[in-house]
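User: Structure with magnesium ion, tokens only please.
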Amino acid sequence: MQADSLPKVYARAEHNISRTQVSENALKVLYRLKKAGFEAYLVGGCVRDLLLGREPKDFDVVTDAHPEQVRKVFRNCRLVGRRFRLAHVYFGREIIEVATFRGAGDEQNDSQIQNDDEGRLLRDNVYGSIEEDVRRRDFTVNSLYYNIRDFSVIDYVGGMQDHAEGILRLIGDPETRFREDPVRMLRAVRFAVKLGFKIDPGCEKPLHELADLLYNIPAARLFDEVLKLFLSGGALQTFEMLRHYGLFQALFPAVERSLEVEEESFPRLFLVKALENSDTRIAEGKTVTAYFLFSAFLWDAVRTQAQAFIRVGVATNIAFQDAANAVISEQIKRIAFPRRITLAMREVWILQSRFEHRQGSRPFRLLSHPRFRAAYDFLLLRIATEGVDPELGEWWTKFQVADEDEQKTMLKASPKPRRKPFKKRSGAVKSRPDNSLRD
Ligand code: ATP
Ligand code: MG
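Assistant:
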């Protein structure tokens, strides 16, 4: 730790952050802490985003006041967090998070800081000074402090320069910092995509080498990260970059395996299309659901597995259910998708074979299924990329908006389901002649 390092202070006239861009509630918190005699700063993502002229997602405050002291300043305040105590100040629906400066600590001497065998930080609940607080943050551009006392930006680590140049650089030795917390590798990709910044070459090198450390991260934490990675608008680029650094397979091993079997066409096409759709929806201000995108991720694994079951005589619907179970149980070991998401994913997959049945009352039952819309969108994706007959999509597109008479006519004219509704994936699992099994 370099406690003696002097910060660069950018006075109000030397940066573009104006208080009009800061949430009123965050300003209240800052002023109130200042009035009570404490230091108070905005820090992290909000300062970074304000400097880019973007609206921050949330405003994080950091102070030298201890959580108990913060609580005394605010009536509308609750202390949270076991690992590290934080104060949440409530203003209706907005919560301003107030953290106390964290100590960097000296790993050898400080009993409250522990690292595991791979260097991962297990506990770090010691309070410190601003100089210490800055060193335990991840990237230099995430480590700028906006001081409410004089509206200056305080920079201990060259974050302003990196920000101006669009560089993501870890504070300190990159390998050590990634080892301490491998999730920082995912954060590097997330911020590179979100901000359009370049990952500093010094940080890129260990990225390629340390991907396996992600296997040590609890599945619940990866779930939070994966949502941020894929539901923030840059999903396609995120996917490409995660694969480039070898990080993707630690998150979605089954997907990586299907991509290795066939790079150029399906399933890559299918996935790319799903990711693009999701990004377009976000750009248009529409909602995206996690289950839809992740069901697209895992679709190839599910159908390949289902085909294998079907080949040995399992009925199609059972084959898909069993395949869905197998794929989900492998996936949730890596990422703790909650049950509401895995259930919805299963439904989207299993409904696919039901589109083939266009006789009698079955189409009406499918139409009234709560997941019909998602399953239908999924079918259209398959038609665009997987070689499913476009006639099937056109039929359903028409059927769902047709009046009663038209629907009757359509049902009469509709073809019986084909024997094999699921086109076999070329090149993936080839069926072998029986005699090849003998030797
Ligand atoms: P955004 O909220 O836009 O996703 P952010 O930078 O605010 O980005 P948060 O996860 O909200 O990200 O974290 C707030 C700040 O806490 C970061 O800017 C960084 O300074 C610090 N931080 C968060 N996660 C880590 C980590 N894993 N290692 C070190 N510092 C971290
Ligand atoms: Mg944030």
